[in-house]
Amino acid sequence: MHPTHKDLTIHAAILTVSDTRTVETDKGGQQIKALLEDVGFHTVQYRIVKDDAATISQQVRAWCEDAHINAIIVTGGTGFTSRDVTYEALTPLFEKEMHGFGELFRSLSYEEIGPRTMFSRAVAGCLQQTAIYALPGSTNAVKLGMSQLIIPTVQHFIGELHRR
Fold first, then answer.
1. pLDDT tens, position by position, 96-108
2. Spatial CB neighbours of 46, under 8 Å, sequence gap ≥ 6
3. Exposure on the CB side of residue 70, measured as CA atoms within 13 A
4. Residue 2: band (very low, low, confident or very high) from pLDDT cuts 50, 70, 90
5. What DSSP assignment string belongs to 108-139?
6. 56 and 74 in contact (C-beta within 8 Å)?
């Protein structure tokens, strides 16, 4: 039988990418934290950074070096405006990209927002045995991605990253 790794403890870092959000106005980041905690996962780091590829990349790399963090969830900066650079910051870091994550996110999102879901560049992958996810910044997108994709599978993802 294939292992599911349901007993793994999740220690997550949350990164909100925004030029305008503050801790008080970051509904997406706070929603991620609440959803993680609702299922017994732990948020060990939380930051808000500007829409700057180098800053995003540097923060994600630093968290991947921290052995205590096994999942990173990024929200914001996944669209097509000139300031949206999360995809460009993350994908070069990935040792492996989980193509199905973005595909399934857009498929599920289509049911809610129709063809505008094509403009989402939600993505997931891994670096140094750390699962990395990027979701759009809207609270609806966060709820969808967290409840239907990330929370049900993150323990399995981490477990697979540590399997030999």
1. 999 999 999 999 9
2. 13, 14, 15, 16, 29, 33
3. 16
4. low
5. HHHHHHGGGGGG---EEEEETTEEEEEE-SSH
6. yes
> Within 13 Å of residue 80, how many CA atoms lie on the same side as its CB?
5
Tens of pLDDT along 8-21?
A: 999 999 999 999 99
Q: In this structure, what token pair is assigned to residue 71?
A: 């999942």
> How many other β-carbons are positioned within 10 Å of the β-carbon of residue 99?
11
Q: Of 142, 124, 141, which Cα lies nearest the Cα of 31?
A: 142
Handedness of CA 100, 143, 65, 43 (dihedral sign): negative
pTM: 0.96
The number of beta carbons lying within 10 Å of the beta carbon of residue 11 is: 18
CB 127 within 8 A of CB 66: no
Enter the tokens of residue 90: 């993350």
The structure tokens listed for 125 are 């992958």
Domains of the chain: 11-162 (3.40.980.10)
DSSP state string for 53-103: HHHHHHHHHHHHH-TT--EEEEES--SSSTT--HHHHHTTT-SEE-HHHHH
